[in-house]
Amino acid sequence: MYARRMHAELTSSGGEFAEDVMHLADLRVTVDRIEGRSVCGLEVGDWFEVTRSSELRIPDGKHFCIYALAAVLPLLPAKQRAIASADWMAHDQEVACPDPDERCIMRIEQIGVSRMTTDERT
After folding, report:
1. pLDDT digits (tens, 9 = 90+) for 18-57
2. How far, in Å, CA of 71 to CA of 83, rounded?
3. Which residue has the higher pLDDT, 16 or 44?
4. Which helix (H) or strand (E) element contains residue 49?
5. Which of 8, 36, 54, 55 has a CB 3.0–4.6 Å from the CB of 103, allowing a cystine?
6. Under a CB-based contact definition with an 8 Å cutoff, are residues 63 and 56 in contact?
7. Which residue in 121, 113, 8 sits closest to 51, CA to CA?
8. Are strands 104-117 and 55-57 parallel, antiparallel or unpaired?
9. DSSP labels for 16-30?
10. Residue 13 predicted with pLDDT over 80
11. CA torsion 11→1→59→95, rounded to 10°?
């Protein structure tokens, strides 16, 4: 899906990627379900977003468990990039929190595309 949006953006701009420009998906990670008991206080529907490559946003007055966050963080850079449709990463959106009593299942979804220059991030 993201690869199609990126292609559409390029086609509409009439160009190719400039060497110093990155197109990265903005992501939302949402607690999809809790199959055990919520030990850390997360609730179904709680979420955080990663925008502009590395900006973490959590709604005011909310929190996100650091252990659930640690489980999903390694996958986010791959989810931000266009990948082959046959790649498992293109189809798997669910991640489980490591707490076996909680069994918190989070869903990663792409919510937009950020366009940045390399100078903005390195």
Report:
1. 567 888 999 999 999 999 999 899 999 999 999 998 999 9
2. 21
3. 44
4. strand 47-51
5. 36
6. no
7. 113
8. unpaired
9. ---TTEEEEEEEEEE
10. no
11. -150
